[in-house]
Amino acid sequence: MGAFSRISAACALLASTLLLAACADPPPLYVDQAWVRLSANPDSPSAGYFVVHGGPAPVALRGVMSDYAQRIEMHESMAMGGMMTMKPVDKVDIPASQTVAFAPGGKHIMLFRINQNAVTQGKIPLTFLFSNGDRIQFDAMIQKTGEPAPAAKEGGSGHAGNASGAAH
Ligand SMILES: [Cu+2]
């Protein structure tokens, strides 16, 4: 009886600070905003980006696979001695209920030898492997060389433009 009322009180507190559904239905682990910047040279890998939304429990992303690439590596970019370098990482922690963005200048995937059919279709199906056994499938849009990156969901463009510039 005591334990039950304590749980109820905790739920009531959560419900008042979050959404009413918080206790019944925690948001699941999912992936979105996936895209690939196609390398101009088919012999060099293309970079891919996406956002992972943490679920009710912490997990780790253990890798990304696709039937439409020869292989995919997870990398992390960092500044070292004034130069950008990158190194492979074998897992990325996804804390519960938090968002982890793979974005230009930071974490990313590198896709080696993307299948030409995927390039023609303009998208590549990816499978994200998590430490809890979840396999999440999500298509990444393929941006050809020279095409702009898709607009980020948050505002804050770094390209405010200068006064003399013509509108693009
Ligand atoms: Cu890389």
UniProtKB/TrEMBL annotation:
Keyword annotations from UniProtKB, A to Z: Signal
Organism: Sphingobium phenoxybenzoativorans
InterPro entries: LpqE-like (IPR007410), Lxx211020-like (IPR058248), PCuAC_sf (IPR036182)
Source taxonomy: Bacteria, Pseudomonadati, Pseudomonadota, Alphaproteobacteria, Sphingomonadales
Pfam families (alphabetical): PCuAC (PF04314)
PANTHER family with a match to the protein in the record: BLR7088 PROTEIN (PTHR36302), COPPER CHAPERONE PCU(A)C (PTHR36302:SF1)
Signal peptide region: 1-21
Keyword Signal assigned: yes
Superkingdom of source: Bacteria
PROSITE patterns in the record: PROKAR_LIPOPROTEIN
Region (Disordered): 147-168
Name this polypeptide is given: Copper chaperone PCu(A)C
